[in-house]
């Protein structure tokens, strides 16, 4: 996840079948974050759902 690119729109959160994504508040901004990396199946749904290309690969990488 490229936090600087993330708008906090929540599309990836809605797309994740494992329900392991959430939106975190950071100052006056929101950004997506993964709750449990061990449950990520690398399905790529979050990457496909992101309009800003803020997720670098199926298994989210915090950058
Ligand atoms: S790649 Fe991982 S975080 Fe992304 S939608 Fe699939 S299970 Fe969820
Ligand atoms: S879909 Fe992209 S821009 Fe929207 S919350 Fe997820 S990572 Fe951020």
TrEMBL record:
It holds the Pfam family Fer4_7. Residues 1-26, 31-60 form the 4Fe-4S ferredoxin-type domain. It comes from Pelotalea chapellei. The lineage of its organism: Bacteria, Pseudomonadati, Thermodesulfobacteriota, Desulfuromonadia, Geobacterales. Signal peptide: none annotated. Keywords: Iron, Iron-sulfur, Metal-binding. Gene3D superfamilies: 3.30.70.20. InterPro entries: 4Fe4S_Fe-S-bd (IPR017896), 4Fe4S_Fe_S_CS (IPR017900). This is 4Fe-4S dicluster domain-containing protein.
């Amino acid at each position: 996840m490229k936090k600087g690119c993330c708008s906090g729109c929540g599309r990836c959160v809605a797309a994740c079948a494992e329900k392991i994504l959430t939106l975190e508040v950071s100052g006056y901004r929101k950004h997506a974050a993964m709750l449990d990396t061990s449950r990520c199946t690398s399905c790529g749904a979050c990457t496909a759902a992101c309009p800003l290309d803020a997720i670098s690969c199926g298994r989210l990488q915090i950058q």
